[in-house]
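Re: that chain you flagged

S.,

Sorry for the slow reply, it's been a week of failed gels. I finally had a moment to sit down with the sequence you sent. For the record, here it is as I used it:
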Amino acid sequence: QVQLVESGGGLVQAGGSLRLSCAASGRSFSSYTMGWFRQRPGKEREFVAHISRAFAETYAANSVKGRFAISGDNAKNTVYLQMNSLKPEDTAVYYCAASTERGATMSSRYDYWGQGTQVTVSS
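Prediction finished late last night. Pasting the structure tokens below so you have them in one place:
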């Protein structure tokens, strides 16, 4: 069993930055793919980025590539999402998730989810 807790959301002006954290407990997530998803108002949940710990591979959606970066800290069992050059359309609830499938990008492939953290970008 894996428990995930996100933090770091908040209100920021367009062009600003935030760093989200996802602390995992219950089991080492070194064998999982850790992903970030977001759900914008009135939209379906969408993939943002993932990191495959065992392979140290990362991948980000085109909509955030070059602005967002995912990373992990093995010692802290924590995954981060650094978000730069934020836009109002990045406003969403951001979720951390864990999957046993390498490189998963579909939310249905993720088994464990955090409660989400709100990110609001003002124009």
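What I noticed first: Residues 67 and 84 are 5 Å apart (CA to CA).

Talk soon,
D.
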